[in-house]
Known about the structure:
This protein is α/β, with parallel strands linked by helices. Helix content is 30%, strand content 26%. The protein has a 6-stranded mixed sheet, with helices on both faces. A 5-stranded mixed beta barrel has the order 1-2-3-5-4. Helix 2 links the parallel strand 8 and strand 9. The termini are far apart. Residues 261, 266, 268, 271, 274-276 line the site of zinc ion.
Amino acid sequence: xxxxxxxxxxxxxxxxxxxxxxxxxxxxxxxxxxxxxxxxxxxxxxxxxxxxxxxxxxxxxxxxxxxxxxxxxxxxxxxxxxxxxxxxxxxxxxxxxxxxxxxxxxxxxxxxxxxxxxxxxxxxxxxxxxxxxxxxxxxxxxxxxxxxxxxxxxxxxxxxxxxxxxxxxxxxxxxxxxxxxxxxxxxxxxxxxxxxxxxxxxxxxxxxxxxxxxxxxxxxxxxxxxxxxxxxxxxxxxxxxxxxxxxxxxxxxxxxxxxxxxxxxxxxxxxxxxxxxxxxxxxxxxxxxxxxxxxxxxxxxxxxxxx
Length: 307
Ligand code: GDP
Ligand code: ZN
C-alpha cells in the first residue's frame, strides 16, 4: 500500500510542482503519467490534489486533481479553444491602490474588478498610503466602489491603520493580490505578517513587484490559514475574452437597473428606455463607473471583431 496525502499546488516550473502537503511539508512532485495526457494542461496553482508515493523509488506524484471551488480563467473570444486556467481555488481578489504616490487609476481598478466578477470571484479594494492624502478627498474618490458594494479598506503601513481588519479578512482563504507597482503590496504583507519577513521579502523581491522570471501563478502560505496568490496574468490589462453582452453583470451597481431596460439585450449605450443610463442621470450610479463600462465595452467589441 503506497502512502497517500492531500496537498495544495503552490507553484510549478518545468514539470515540477511544489506542493504543500496536509502535514505542512513542501514537496516537489511530478504529475502522474496517466494524468499528464488528460489533465496535465489543466493542473493549476491553487489546485487541491491527492499525491501518492511510489513504493519503489519513493518519489511523490500527483494522482488526482480534486474538484475546484473557483477558477480564474483567461478566455479567448469565440469559444473554449485556448482557454487557460490561470489559478484555481482563489477565494478573493484584493486590488491594492495608493491614495497617492502613485496616484490611483480608477480605470485600472475597474478592469481588475471586472475580471474578478467575470470569474465569479469576490473582490476587495485596499486603498493604502492614506497618510499621504486628505482623508475626506480619499473617501470621496473611492465612494463609488463602496456604493457598488465592494468592501473598501483604508490602510496606512506607516501609521499602522486598517491592518488588523484587513488581516482578518484574509484568514483561512486564498487571496490574489494585484495592483500597480509601488502602492505598498509587499509593505502591507510585511506589516500584517511580521513573523514571515523572509517569505514576504521573497514575495516582494520577486513576485509582487512583477520581476519574477516564471510566467505562472504562485501561492505563498502566510499564517492563520491565509495564502497570498500572485497571478501575473492579472496584471496584463487585456480583458480576457469577456463577452461584451455580459460586461454589465460585472458592474454590481447596475444590477436592479439592467432588468428594467426596455430591450433585453440593451448595452446601455444609446438605446432608448435604458434604465442604467437613467440611473446615471439621476446620480444613483456613478458616472465615472459608467464611463469605465462604456470604455471597456468598446474595447471588448473591438477585440471580438479582431478575433
Ligand atoms: P509594491 O510594489 O506594491 O509591493 O510596494 P512596496 O511595498 O514596495 O512599497 C513601495 C513604497 O511605498 C515603499 O517605499 C514603501 O515604504 C512605501 N509605502 C508602503 N506603504 C506605505 C504607506 O502606507 N504610507 C507611505 N507613506 N508609504 C508607504
Ligand atoms: Zn440599458
